[in-house]
UniProtKB/TrEMBL annotation, chain A:
Pathway: Alkaloid degradation; nicotine degradation. InterPro entries: 2Fe-2S-bd, 2Fe-2S-bd_dom_sf, 2Fe-2S_ferredoxin-like_sf, 2Fe-2S_ferredoxin-type, Beta-grasp_dom_sf, Diverse_Oxidoreductases. This is Carbon-monoxide dehydrogenase small subunit. The keyword Repressor does not apply. It comes from Actinopolyspora xinjiangensis. It comes from the Bacteria. Residues 150-187 are annotated as: Disordered. GO terms for molecular function: 2 iron, 2 sulfur cluster binding; metal ion binding; oxidoreductase activity.
Automatic annotation (TrEMBL), chain B:
The lineage of its organism: Bacteria, Bacillati, Actinomycetota, Actinomycetes, Actinopolysporales. Pfam families: CO_deh_flav_C (PF03450), FAD_binding_5 (PF00941). PANTHER family: XANTHINE DEHYDROGENASE SUBUNIT C-RELATED. InterPro entries: CO_DH_flav_C, CO_DH_flav_C_dom_sf, Diverse_Substr_Oxidored, FAD-bd_PCMH, FAD-bd_PCMH-like_sf, FAD-bd_PCMH_sub1, FAD-bd_PCMH_sub2, Mopterin_DH_FAD-bd. PROSITE patterns: FAD_PCMH. This is Carbon-monoxide dehydrogenase medium subunit. It comes from Actinopolyspora xinjiangensis. It comes from the Bacteria. Keywords: FAD, Flavoprotein, Oxidoreductase. Residues 1-177 form the FAD-binding PCMH-type domain. GO terms for molecular function: FAD binding; oxidoreductase activity.
Length: 187, 283
């Protein structure tokens, strides 16, 4: 099996994967990073959005082997010391989620949007989120939350906000997987 | 769902990729950006024994100039194409059409050449490439050949590429100073075109000197709207002239019917959108 080395949320992971393993499966099943979810089979929903080398991608539409040598950031890297990231806080404050299934992807895509355009108007927010579907909220509060987050974040928007401050340390994923699986509550 | 098992290779040169494909016969699929291939594999609509990933081939990526020609590497992402100063300056139509492809996440991974080689009739890039008389540089076991865009798109999801060939780059004559617009009609949250019109126009001394128009999803392959181009050249760029030219939009088309639209509705759209594309390009 191919061996890959991927920097995931600031930690260097080296693992063997099948070629057919999707990046999202690798994150969830091998690394226990279940914050990223799968919502469809057709690349439409965006629930699985993570950042690869600072750009948003649908992790269901990337093979794990394609992430070899790259840097992946998931929603799990956002909060620091129990404090929500400003984007997460804005979603919370604006009731921008109901069931919450679309939220990890919405938040990661919203951060990509602000990295590219720190002061988007509502139209640009809607366009920036066009690859993310929400079946609950009707989007109004999501747009409101992203607008508010953009105001709160102004100076620090973008990839700099992504890292939780951990120093990347080489380590194989198996060491941490068991513990995270328990923490995540599912595998 | 997850894909069925396959072997995977990621060659670092075009020649290695061609060798791998040649050895595999019909049992291989080329992975460019993967934004169409991976959903297809996940839904098990394809089940290749080998996947050849072009992602590690530096030669196939990037935009450059070669005299009067703009060269776009097949593995250049949509995101890179739409932001490239060279593309915006010399092939604005390509930049504008690329901005409408799918969504930001897909544009980060999806590639220019991958979209063209996939040849989805609803894809947005074949029509501009056809309208602009681009040439496709194709590598195979016996070397490289150049295929004009007009011969590249053969049928639904079918191009002139053989199973042991890869698209390396696309050469587009420079359209510096031409105005352009890509007018697209699609359903919300599914960015595939029901119909799209790619138009680029050179206006000189108050009249249309030259025009290029291509249609998306008005048949199995993109269609060049020669009738519209002929009707437009020599006219002043007015609403009246655009309307008169747009009447010719459906000439030579063979629109199909599907869940998104009936053929006659597509024909109606082609005419309306052609008028809008010309007006916006010149506006
Ligand atoms: S799971 Fe729906 S786009 Fe990835
Ligand atoms: S909150 Fe339920 S899908 Fe968006």
């Amino acid at each position: 099996m191919p061996r890959i080395t991927v920097d995931v949320d600031g930690i260097t992971c080296t693992d063997e994967v099948q070629p057919r393993t999707l990046l999202v499966q690798y994150l969830r099943d091998q690394l226990g990073k279940v914050g990223t979810v799968v919502g469809c089979d057709t690349s439409n929903c965006g629930a699985c959005t993570v950042h690869m080398d600072g750009h948003s991608v649908k992790s269901c539409s990337v093979l794990a082997v394609q992430a070899d040598g790259h840097e992946v950031t998931t929603v799990e890297a956002l909060s620091q010391d129990g404090r929500l990231h400003p984007m997460q806080q804005a979603f919370h404050d604006n009731h921008a989620l109901q069931c919450g299934f679309c939220t990890p992807g919405m938040i990661m895509q919203a951060l990509d949007l602000l990295a590219e355009n720190p002061e988007p108007d509502d139209e640009q927010i809607r366009e920036g989120l066009e690859g993310n579907l929400c079946r609950c909220t009707g989007y109004q509060n999501i747009v409101r939350a992203v607008r508010e987050a953009s105001q709160r974040m102004r100076a620090g928007a973008g990839p700099a906000m992504e890292h939780s401050g951990e120093t990347p340390a080489p380590r194989t994923s198996t060491e941490q997987t068991a513990q995270q699986r328990v923490a995540g509550g599912q595998s | 769902m997850i894909p069925a098992e396959f072997e995977y290779v990621a060659p670092s040169t075009v020649e290695e990729a061609v060798q791998a494909l040649d050895r595999a016969g019909d049992d291989a699929k080329v992975l460019a950006g993967g934004q169409s291939l991976l959903p297809v594999l996940r839904m098990r609509m394809a089940d290749p024994g080998l996947v050849v990933d072009l992602g590690g081939i530096p030669e196939a990526r990037g935009v450059r100039e070669d005299g009067d020609t703009l060269v776009i590497g097949a593995m250049t992402s949509h995101h890179e194409v739409m932001r490239s100063e060279l593309v915006r300056g010399h092939a604005e139509l390509v930049a504008l059409a690329t901005r409408t492809v799918a969504d930001p996440q897909v544009r980060h991974r999806g590639t220019f050449g991958g979209s063209l080689a996939h040849a989805d009739p609803a894809g947005d890039l074949p029509a501009p490439v056809l309208a602009m008389d681009a040439e496709m540089v194709v590598a195979g076991p016996s070397g490289r050949r150049t295929v004009p865009a007009a011969e590249f798109f053969v049928d639904y999801f079918t191009t002139a590429l053989d199973s042991n060939e890869v698209l390396v780059e696309v050469r587009i004559p420079k359209y510096t100073g031409w105005r352009a617009h890509y007018e697209k009609f699609n359903r919300v949250a599914q960015a595939w075109s029901v119909v799209g019109v790619a138009a680029t126009v050179l206006v000189r001394d108050g009249a249309v000197a030259r025009a290029r128009v291509g249609l998306t999803n008005m048949g199995a392959t993109p269609v060049r709207a020669h009738g519209v181009e002929r009707a437009l050249v020599g006219s002043p760029p007015t609403e009246e002239a655009f309307r008169r030219a747009a009447v010719h939009a459906t000439e030579g088309t063979q629109a199909g019917s599907d869940a998104s639209a009936e053929a006659d509705y597509r024909e109606h759209l082609a005419e309306v959108l052609t008028g809008r594309a010309l007006a916006t390009a010149c506006g």
